[in-house]
Amino acid sequence: MSDSKKRWYLKGADPVQWGVAVVAPVAAAALTLSYAGMSALPIVVAAVVVGLLYGIAAFYLLSPNAARAVLVLGFLVCVTALISIKSTLVLGLPTWLLSGIAGAIIGAHFRYLTDRKNAGGPARAGSSGLRVLWQVGRKQFEASTETGATLEQKISALDGSKQSVVSALRGTARMDFCGDSHGAMVVYFSPDTRKDDHWSFLTTPGAEPGRTDVVLGDLKGSFSFEECTNLESALAASRHFVVTGAADPKLTWFVSPEVFDRRPLPS
């Protein structure tokens, strides 16, 4: 399987992370005020507000890789300023930094909620129609159809760059097609997305050793050749899914509770 588990910014914040988001800026502000006195209060308040907005904007508006780069850049600027600047304004930098981390947690959580909504929302147990979802850059599109023509067209248009994910939903079942139609692809399937341990992915038995990178939305994952597939098999899987809402038994699927945790996409 891919060599990294689902990142925290793809799962939403957990109670520990929410605790960090609340405690970190408050603790930093309290320590700064205990050291500098209440005269530094305006600087500390401004640092909290600016830091929160900085982190939220970075992790909500930018891709995860770009957001992390912006956060690291902010950390380096903060450290440099602490060392070189001789001004009372420097008192707000630790608070700004920890508030930025808190903002990153908040921004990533809202980004997760937005992407989850755009990814198709909750499973629809009473619906049997086919829904096709795809994205171009960060723009999300959806079409309802009774045939697989739209799905096949979107799968074939995957370029591993601006268009790297297409999803098909029928009732509670979902199939995701990721990557480049002219190269390596990864196909995920779940008969019931309400159950995290039902996920699987399409494999290529007997593939040569080695690994390759596959783009999945904003992320790039490293997969073994056996974990990847090609356009022909992906289209075969889509045709069976359109008709039955199930995985094609003629193809080889790897089923494991670990698949959900390693699937770098919102559900």
What can you tell me about this protein's structure?
This protein has helices at residues 15-36, 41-61, 64-84, 93-118, 149-156, 231-244, 258-262; strands at 130-136, 139-145, 165-170, 173-179, 185-190, 200-202, 211-216, 219-224, 253-255. It is of the alpha+beta class and 267 residues long. It has seven helices and nine strands; from the N terminus they run ααααββαββββββαβα. Helices cover 44% and strands 19% of the residues. Strands 2-1-3-4-5-6-9 form a seven-stranded antiparallel β-sheet. Helix 1 runs antiparallel to helix 4. It starts with 14 loop residues before the first helix and ends in a 5-residue tail after the last helix. Strand 3 (165-170) and strand 4 (173-179) form a beta hairpin.
Structure summarized in a few sentences:
This protein is an alpha+beta fold and 267 residues long.
Topology:
Layout lengths: L14 H22 L4 H21 L2 H21 L8 H26 L11 E7 L2 E7 L3 H8 L8 E6 L2 E7 L5 E6 L9 E3 L8 E6 L2 E6 L6 H14 L8 E3 L2 H5 L5
Antiparallel strand pairs: 1-2, 1-3, 3-4, 4-5, 5-6, 6-9, 7-8
Helix pairs in contact: 1-2, 1-4, 2-3, 2-4, 3-4, 5-6
Number of E-state strands: 9
pLDDT averaged residue by residue: 83
Assembly form of the protein: single chain
Radius of gyration: 22 Å
Order of helices and strands: HHHHEEHEEEEEEHEH
Strand order in space, largest sheet? 2-1-3-4-5-6-9
Give the CA-based shape: elongated
Poorly predicted ranges: 1-6, 122-126
Distance between the termini: 18 Å
Largest sheet data: 7 strands, antiparallel
Structural class: alpha+beta
Q: Number of helical runs? A: 7
Strand content: 15-25%
